[in-house]
């Protein structure tokens, strides 16, 4: 029987080994081909929060004034995922549509988008 902590540690060690192999392979390829890094698309993602909601939350009021009432908002209306992809000298960015659930299928579609944009620009 396998304890959760031991299994997760083994999984992390395996993943670290795979990452190290990929990094070593990319380093060797970059050393052989000086233009290699101009062909790589990298990306990052983060959650963007609705600034209006945050600003509303931070409003000041005098002790004798009535409390500000704020409509309850669902998380879908408050945040969205922001994704940026970098290719050589180009930057591509995308927000998830309101109410979009981030599924495997949606994420694959998003990952294909910068690749297709680069292919159409530089076939």
SSE topology sketch:
Layout: H1 4-32, E1 41-49, H2 51-57, H3 75-78, E2 79-87, E3 90-95, H4 104-121
Antiparallel strand pairs: 1-2, 2-3
Describe the structure.
With 123 residues, this protein is of the alpha+beta class. It folds into two domains: 1-33; 40-121, no CATH class. It has helices at residues 4-32, 51-57, 75-78, 104-121; strands spanning 41-49, 79-87, 90-95. A three-stranded antiparallel beta sheet has the order 1-2-3. A hairpin with a 2-residue loop joins strand 2 (79-87) and strand 3. The mean pLDDT is 75.
Sum up the structure in keywords.
three-stranded antiparallel β-sheet; 20% strand; 4 helices; alpha+beta
Short description:
This protein has 123 residues and is an alpha+beta fold. 47% of the residues lie in helices and 20% in strands. It has a 3-stranded antiparallel sheet with strand order 1-2-3.
Radius of gyration: 22 Å
Low-confidence stretches: none
Estimate nothing, just give the exact number of structural domains.
2
Choose one word for the global shape: extended
Q: What helical percentage do the residues reach?
A: 40-55%
The separation of the N and C termini measures 53 Å
Question: What characterizes the major β-sheet?
Answer: 3 strands, antiparallel
